[in-house]
Write a structure and sequence with these properties.
By secondary structure, the chain is of the alpha+beta class. It folds into 2 domains: about 60 residues; about 110 residues, no CATH class. Helix content is about 45%, strand content about 20%. Strands 4-5-6-7 form a 4-stranded antiparallel β-sheet. The radius of gyration is 26 Å and the shape is elongated.
Length: about 200
């Protein structure tokens, strides 16, 4: 098979990936809507009560005190990782009620009601808002992570750009290198034809 025919067939085969790379590359360069899509949502904190003291225990590797709309939180890291403890009794508080979680999230999202709306659905530690944003609450460290329709769309564009099309990581690890190899051969065939024409 001649270089011209190889170049034509490979070019047709690579047309869809090339269009995908161009379109997604344009999005990645201009980053439309990235600020809202990847906003670093955080629990709203307040000044700690004066005179607050905590008795530490052997084995505690790190201690954090935070004041939120729910009150004072004692976050402790030990050999088993992070967890919350009751500041008065020292008992571990592994779970938060849905009503307290909603109160915490409402306070954290009050600055942008247009994006977050209100909490309408709870599934495990994920809270879906009326605007379609999923907020994940890490109660042990009082960390929040948000993902809306826009974040999911941009993440999908990254999947397209990096040839992760099937959703099967084993297959996608094969498709990616094949796509890059075909792109290299396409460029090589074009370069050879260009040199020969001269």
């Amino acid at each position: 098979m001649g270089f011209r025919r190889w170049h034509k067939i490979t070019g047709l085969f690579m047309l869809l990936p090339l269009l995908g790379w161009c379109a997604t590359g344009l999005v990645f360069l201009t980053k439309p809507g990235y600020e809202a899509a990847y906003e670093q949502l955080a629990v709203k904190t307040y000044a700690l009560p004066p005179g607050l003291s905590v008795r530490t225990e052997p084995g505690w590797l790190d201690v954090r005190l935070m004041q939120t709309v729910l009150g004072t939180h004692l976050l402790v890291k030990d050999s088993n990782g992070w967890h919350q403890r009751d500041i008065a009794t020292g008992e571990v508080r592994d779970h938060v009620s849905d009503s307290d979680a909603e109160k915490l999230l409402s306070d954290a999202t009050a600055h942008n009601p247009q994006r977050y709306g209100g909490v309408v659905k709870v599934s495990d530690d994920i809270y879906r808002t009326s605007t379609g944003v999923d907020i994940t609450l890490n109660w042990s460290q009082l960390l929040l992570r948000q993902q809306g329709r826009d974040s999911r769309l941009i993440n999908k564009l990254y999947e397209i750009h990096y040839l992760r099309w099937t959703g099967n990581s084993a297959i996608d690890r094969i498709v990616g290198p094949i796509g890059l190899a075909l792109l290299f051969l396409l460029a090589l065939a074009g370069a050879v034809m260009s040199v020969r024409r001269r």
